[in-house]
Structures are given as structure tokens and as C-alpha cells.
Amino acid sequence: MPLTPLDIHNKEFSRGFRGYDEDEVNDFLDQIIKDYETLIREKKDLDQAVKNSEEKLSHFSNIETTLNKSILVAQETAEDVKANANKEAKLIVMEAKKNADRIINEALEKSRKITLDIEELKKEANVYRTRFQMLIEAQLELLKGTDWQKFSVTQEPEESGEADKAGSLAPEA
Known about the structure:
The structure is a single chain. By secondary structure, this protein is mostly helical. 80% of the residues lie in helices and 0% in strands. The protein contains three helices and no strands. The protein is rod-shaped and about 190 Å long. The relative contact order is 0.03.
């Protein structure tokens, strides 16, 4: 067990013949006591500083551990968010492709329908043209026919009433 300043102070030396000067020994012991007390105080202060440093180190170690865990959680969360974003992006792209295909198919179907309608209209126009041409040709045949010669202007009507009749039978221009 180490000596305390009180142990040094209470130490009694036995006296011998021609021993040391008692005052010198006491002065030296007083100096040792003061130095020893200073060393003990410094040791306590250093022990307290070490304890405080260890507490701070423990605190900062806990913070470091917590930060490391937080960083790991943040990284995992970021990876999860990134993975979810990639999945969502793929789904959006797939949906867009489906919509694009649907729109293209609808456009093609409309185009086919319009093409069929155009062909049908062309056929109807040809039929109408042919019928109209036949009608006009029939009308020309009627005009070229001998029935119109009866109404020709070579005969002069005798009365003004007959002229009105002839004029009403002639086609209007």
C-alpha cells in the first residue's frame, strides 16, 4: 500500500548516537510531504481527466456507431428507393409501350377503315358517273329522236294561242 502524506508526517525515527540533525530531517520530510501531496493531487486530476476523456470517447464512439448505422440505413433506403424507382420507371415504360401499340393499332384500324371508305366512295362515284352518263346519253338520244321535229319552228302557228302551246312544249333554255 502506498504511503500517504500523513504517513510521512507521522513517521518517527528512532534516535541513535550521532544521528541526523532532527530539524534537517523534518524540513526534508515536510518538503517530501508537500511534493507527495502535489503528486497525489495531480494524479487525481489526471485520473479525472482520463475518466472524462474515456466518457467523451465512449460518447463519441456511440455517436460514431449510431452514425454508421444511420449511414447504412440511409444507403439501404437509397438503394430501395432507387430499386423502386427503376421498377416504377420500367412499369411506366411498359405502360407507355402498351399505350403506343394500342394507339398505333387504333390508327391503323382507322386508316384501313378510311381506305375502305375511300374505295367505296370511288366505286359509288364511278357508279354515279356511269348512271349520269347513261342518263345524259339517253337524254341526247331523246333530243336526236324524230319526236322533236314535230315541234320544230318550220311550221308557223296560225293563232297566238298555238304559239303559246308550241312554246310551252319546247324545252326551256
